[in-house]
Amino acid sequence: MLGFLKEPVVVTAKINVNLVALTMMGLMSRLWGLCYPRAVVFDEVYYGQFVSLYMKRIFFVDDSGPPFGHMLLALGGYLGGFDGNFLWNRIGAEYSMNVPVWSLRLLPALAGALCVPLAYQILVELHFSHCAALGAAVLILLENSLITQSRFMLLESILIFFILLAVLSYLKFYNLQKHSAFSGSWWFWLLLTGVACACAVGVKYMALFTYMLLLAIAGLHFWHMIGDQNLSNVSLLCHFLARGLALIIIPMGMYLSFFYVHLALLYRSGPHDQIMTSAFQASLEGGLARITQGQPLEVAYGSQITLRNVLGKPMQCWLHSHTNTYPIRYDNGRGSSHQQQVTCYPFKDVNNWWIVKDPGMQQLVVSNPPRPVRHGHIVQLVHGITTRYLNTHDVAAPLSPHSQEVSCYIDYNISMPAQNLWRVEIVNRDSDTDVWKTILSEVRFVHVNTSAVLKASGVIGASLPEWGYRQLEVVGEKLSKGYHQSMVWNVEEHRYGKSQEQKEREVELHSPTQMDISKNLSFMAKFTELQWKILTLKNEDTEHKYSSSALDWITMDTNIAYWLHPTSGAQIHLLGNVATWASANAAALVYLCLSLWYLLRRRRRIYDIPEDAWQLWVSAGGVCGGGWAVNYLPFFLMEKTLFLYHYLPALTFQILLIPVVLQHLGNHLCRSVLLKSMFSALIVAWFSSVYFVYCTFSPVTYGQPALSPTELKALRWKDTWNILIRKQ
């Protein structure tokens, strides 16, 4: 039985030395001196804030994209034992000892390093020579801008890694298609394609364009499969379902999971949750949840409520009134009703409280049992402190003359009767008999007499003058002008009123609520709201010293100063390898011109290159040229502040195109031995120039050694580059 022990157990493994060497060099180039500088570098001041919030479990919203990339950066902080206690308020600020700088920068650096072997393997899977693949990897290795971007707590290197991984995985899957369909490795690479696409989109939404490119390539390949008579209908259906599962269903599920983990981690209230709805805020620990815990759920006649405008931007605000009246005449000469002002106030205040009154009864307390208000019911809204009724009439609003003024009615014994009846319309109701609920119901108040809708016009730009204390305007808007979120309100704070006397009621309005009710939102409700906020929330785009246009990136007419040593001339800049960028542009131009030439010639049935070489040329262009296009051209349609680092994903694909073009030229245009020898010599000289430029700009890539003013001036190869030189 033990006879097998007589022979040694032998394990044979194939090791691609090129791949191992490239991986090691990539790691060395990205990890060397990773803790230097021990100071906040450029956008680390931005991403570091989110890492600290993750460490403290405090909710935040970042309009730049989904949360997966932020979570990866936070993972680095967690592994390094970061407690989140650091004030991210200034570029160049020295990190305190509790900040694990190496750990925070590790994952972006690893992602950047692994892009080097990924580039090699992509060219191999595209069926180019190992020499061309090695050239592509070396170009990525020696690209100064990619090195700089991957050595700090930034997201671009992680984004590029997942994009390249998705492309490589799909190419490996496709190459296994003919001989190993539905094998274990076939499934592995197909599933990894979907996973990598989901991760890329989870880092930044720009990856959606690469994802769509891969879906288009997969769709084209499947279209060709349909014409294969050797495949049965059942087999085609299985292929279709497998691709649908791996490339659509799984990425969607993973995308949802990123938000699930994000929301599970960030369960505490913080400064960002004010832009969310009251229901979302109430689901967080602390903040509004402390206030709303114990509130009754159903709004009844006699309820004391605060009404928050649902739009919530540019700031949250609550329906408010105070004893001051509108001026008799405005500055432009128009007259007002001189009634009590009604505004939308962006702070919590006792004057935000209103009482829901039954028009047919005088009492301002909740009966026993409470009589709930339902969709379509007519109510009066009584201001809690002044006891005046919410009113609107055919008088022009102070800042919006085409809308009606909203006021609290004062009886001046003139021919201006009260018009204070409002119909409650629950916008998000399930049926026409729905009860008006605290926090959960989004309602409109439609004026019975004029059909105007209560609207906070101030939240979209109208702030009252000094006589209105710069509070936000509230108007009555005609329904015919369309629907807008500024017309929708929800009850945020709520209690059942018990005091009929005004003085007792004022004390009651200041007191905390007593009853208990749970208002937890489902994950899908929270996801939908957060996703909508991310897509629609836009910070004010301000001109930045280092912002640029997409046209500037092609010729690298711009740079970004990432860090400057406080005393020496040491500094770090986002600057690319000039030789590589120029070559990438030339390769793209040559590819375009040759493709057009070949297409014209093929139209005339003249075939300059073999069919397999043509298919190789087209497929490489679809991946590399298509990858460049989808990661670059969309920026021309974006209204946002742009920086040079936005070009790096597109640049990576353009670099991959260089060895594609060089191999094609060497194989098909250099026919004689002399031409091939000269071409090889030129390539060696060109690679030497790439290495020379890399070494020249290494001091501003790694931030060391410090350069003298003369040496820094010598690096200003373009007048548009902003190299920082201290005055002597």
From TrEMBL:
EC code(s) of this entry: 2.4.1.109
InterPro entries, alphabetized: ArnT-like_N (IPR003342), MIR_dom_sf (IPR036300), MIR_motif (IPR016093), PMT-like (IPR027005), PMT_4TMC (IPR032421)
Pathway the protein contributes to: Protein modification; protein glycosylation
Molecular-function GO term, any one: dolichyl-phosphate-mannose-protein mannosyltransferase activity
Catalytic activity: a di-trans,poly-cis-dolichyl beta-D-mannosyl phosphate + L-threonyl-[protein] = 3-O-(alpha-D-mannosyl)-L-threonyl-[protein] + a di-trans,poly-cis-dolichyl phosphate + H(+); a di-trans,poly-cis-dolichyl beta-D-mannosyl phosphate + L-seryl-[protein] = 3-O-(alpha-D-mannosyl)-L-seryl-[protein] + a di-trans,poly-cis-dolichyl phosphate + H(+)
GO cellular component, one term: endoplasmic reticulum membrane
Gene3D superfamilies, alphabetized: 2.80.10.50
Class in the EC hierarchy, top level: transferase
UniProt xrefs under Pfam families: MIR (PF02815), PMT (PF02366), PMT_4TMC (PF16192)
Highest taxon of the lineage: Eukaryota
Subcellular location, record wording: Endoplasmic reticulum membrane
Main location: endoplasmic reticulum
Membrane protein topology class: Multi-pass membrane protein
Keyword Repeat assigned: yes
Family of the protein in this entry: Belongs to the glycosyltransferase 39 family.
Name of the protein described by the UniProt record: Protein O-mannosyl-transferase 1
